[in-house]
Amino acid sequence: MTRRLIVGVTGASGAVLALETLRQLAQAKAETHLVVSRGAEPTIRHELGHAALADFSALATWTHSPDNLAAPIASGSFRSDGMIVVPCSMRSLAAIAHGFGENLVARAADVTLKEKRCLVIAPREAPLHEGHLSSMLALARMGAIIAPPVPPFYARPSSFEDVIREIAARLVNWVGVDPGGQMTRWNGDSQQR
């Protein structure tokens, strides 16, 4: 059964996490609906180069404009298995937590919550002030999974790519897609991939 997932990318640093998440979802043969916010576009270009936006679109099954509030994913009648917002800026986090459907990322996340579907948020900010934490708490109380991109050090990553792969694999896993060998699973004292 093909999983249908929405991937929102916002303007926080960490575009490489979104790209790897899309890669893993494509490898798992998931149907993906990608929305890149206006704030994410310059961040992606800065962090990954000018051609990177095309890489995002190439990995996604469908790409939606962040301004298109008439897109299918803006409605609860659109069946999806969940949504990942990676990276999630604090602006987007607050918009999602307080129901401000100002763009398609926030609206699709709002729909995901109201339909009781899995919403995984990967917030990217440090340090956090009380407003950030309040928004995260509000989302957690609504059923969202708050998943800061924290590397699993027990996996003993030996490269930057290992860290990114492991973090993305966890995001994919939390939304219900098996990342297979992309994720190191804890196995007591012995490590297995």
What is the radius of gyration computed over CA atoms, rounded to a whole number of angstroms?
16 Å
Indicate the structural class: alpha/beta
Number of structural domains: 1
Count of DSSP strands:
6
CATH superfamily: Flavin prenyltransferase-like
Apparent shape: globular
What's the CATH topology label? Rossmann fold
Q: How are the strands ordered across the major sheet?
A: 3-2-1-4-5-6
Instruction: Give unreliable regions as ranges.
Output: none
Note the main sheet. 6 strands, parallel
Describe the SSE topology.
Elements lengths: L3 E6 L5 H13 L3 E6 L3 H9 L3 H8 L2 E3 L17 E7 L1 H8 L6 H11 L3 E6 L6 H12 L3 E2 L13 H15 L19
Parallel strand pairs: 1-2, 1-4, 2-3, 4-5, 5-6
Helix pairs in contact: 1-7, 4-5, 4-6
List key phrases describing it.
16% strand; Rossmann fold; alpha/beta; 7 helices; six-stranded parallel β-sheet; 193 residues
Task: Give a description of the structure.
The structure is a single chain. This protein has 193 residues and is of the alpha/beta class. The protein has a single domain, classed as Rossmann fold. It contains seven helices and six strands. The protein has helices at residues 15-27, 40-48, 52-59, 90-97, 104-114, 130-141, 160-174; strands at 4-9, 31-36, 62-64, 82-88, 118-123, 145-146. It has a six-stranded parallel beta sheet with strand order 3-2-1-4-5-6, sandwiched between helices. The longest helix is centred in the last third of the chain and has 15 residues, at 160-174. It is globular, with a radius of gyration of 16 Å. It catalyses: dimethylallyl phosphate + FMNH2 = prenylated FMNH2 + phosphate. It comes from Borborobacter arsenicus. It is an enzyme of class 2 (transferase).
